[in-house]
Design goal:
Layout lengths: L6 E8 L4 E7 L6 E2 L1 E4 L7 H13 L10 E11 L14 E10 L13 E8 H7 L3 H8 L1 H5 L6
Helix pairs in contact: 2-3
Length: 154
């Protein structure tokens, strides 16, 4: 197995009503998150990484017409959790995460990667942000109304 490249994507999946899809990690039950994943090669475009991870983890295909990935042009640098550092080259402690979102209908079919995730849940965006174990994921979810221009119905 080759070392992971410390550049990744975060894809926040949401509806027009700002319900957010979270998925529970198989290897760490209780850890809820949006879609995440690292680039496979140093020259892999981030948009391609986001579309690949979205499809692999949820079965949602970003076709560019009905399901469109939105690049937030925002990146976060964070310390890699010690339990995952063994996946990277020795001495690598930080990752750069690039944020994307995708708006989908609430009734879209979700097919999880059983190897990676146990279950999924649709939650109002504030509840989703509270459930995330990753602070950068929670912060991205909290920015949904401003980034998308959508407002949660009252």
């Amino acid at each position: 197995m080759t070392d992971k490249i410390p550049v990744s994507v975060l894809v926040v999946i949401h509806t027009a009503n700002l319900d957010v899809l979270l998925i529970e990690r198989a290897g760490q039950p209780g850890f809820w998150q949006s879609v995440t994943g690292s680039i496979d090669a140093v020259d892999e475009p981030l948009q391609l990484t986001a579309a690949r991870e979205l499809g692999e983890e949820t079965g949602i295909i970003a076709d560019g017409q009905h399901i469109v990935l939105r690049d937030w042009n925002l990146s976060n640098v964070y310390e890699i959790f010690p339990i995952w550092r063994h996946r990277y080259a020795p001495g690598v402690t930080h990752n750069t995460e690039h944020v994307f979102s995708v708006q989908v209908p609430r009734d879209i079919a979700i097919t999880l990667s059983a190897r990676e995730h146990l279950q999924y849940a649709w939650l109002p965006y504030l509840a989703a942000a509270e459930r995330c174990f990753s602070s950068s994921n929670a912060e991205a979810i909290l920015q949904l109304p401003a980034i998308t221009g959508l407002a949660r119905p009252t």
